[in-house]
Specification:
Strand order of the largest sheet: 1-2
Number of domains: 1
Helix content: 55-70%
Distance between the termini: 24 Å
Radius of gyration: 16 Å
Oligomer: single chain
Largest sheet: 2 strands, antiparallel
Number of helices: 3
Length: 110
């Protein structure tokens, strides 16, 4: 089970690192950037499905638990931001709310 958790963590880290590398090139052609962002949306869908499956199979033993609901909420916010960029409803303002990025929960009491 621990190997699966490590694999999922590595997959998540690799996807985000790749997405920042893809989107970080300021001189990229607009069509190419849109293609990369569409691919990133697909990766977010995969990560969301993995998080959903992990939440269903997670054993709630021990004091600390991974907060899959918060992770899925942040993935949804990232997806919405990319979709808003690809198909803007309006130019400004964008939602300034930050991602939580804290996915560890502490189990209190018995």
């Amino acid at each position: 089970m621990r190997d699966i958790a490590i694999h999922r963590r590595d997959l998540l880290a690799a996807a985000f690192a790749a997405s920042f590398g893809i989107c970080g090139n300021a001189s990229a052609d607009d069509d190419l950037q849109r293609t990369h962002l569409a691919a990133l949306l697909h990766q977010l869908d995969v990560l969301d499905r993995l998080a959903q499956q992990s939440a269903l199979s997670a054993a709630n033993s021990g004091r600390y638990h991974f907060d899959f609901a918060r992770l899925r909420s942040d993935i949804a916010r990232m997806r919405a931001g990319i979709e808003d960029y690809l198909s803007p409803r309006r130019a400004q303002p964008r939602d300034p709310t930050e991602l939580s990025a804290d996915y560890r929960r502490e189990e209190l009491g018995p």
